[in-house]
């Protein structure tokens, strides 16, 4: 633990002891240090302390009276503010009952609209599902028709080929072809 680098002096009050603690302990006080400077500082401290004591004694007797007056003024202001706030609450309470009734009616109309929209949504969903199943059935039927058409085209081509081969094998007496 480090000891303090100042010692009390009988005449000048607190002084830095450069001989005892070396120049590093009093480095900041070497420049501009005057023998009466410490006396001046201690006198100034005593004067400030006396001023504080005078103010405490002066306001000490008047302080409770001042506090009571401040308390009364503050209570009057808060009472007025509380009355105004209470009137505002009463006015808003009356207005809020009407608003509450209007909001309740709006809620009931919105609930009926929601139910109506939900039923419409369900019918639209059913229509979409029916349309999808019809579309799938038409696709399957179309694929069947395409297969049938291809089969008929092939059969038609076979029949034409047979007819052509029959026509070529028959003698052409009159030179006309029957079609």
From TrEMBL:
Alphabetical GO biological process terms? protein transport
What InterPro entries does the record point to? Ump1 (IPR008012)
Q: Where is the signal peptide?
A: none
Keywords in alphabetical order, please. Answer: Apoptosis, Chaperone, Coiled coil, Endoplasmic reticulum, Membrane, Protein transport, Transmembrane, Transmembrane helix, Transport
Instruction: Tell me the superkingdom of the source.
Output: Eukaryota
| Tagged with keyword Lyase | no
- Which segments does the entry list as coiled coil? 100-169
Q: Where in the cell is it found?
A: Endoplasmic reticulum membrane
Name of the featured protein:
Endoplasmic reticulum transmembrane protein
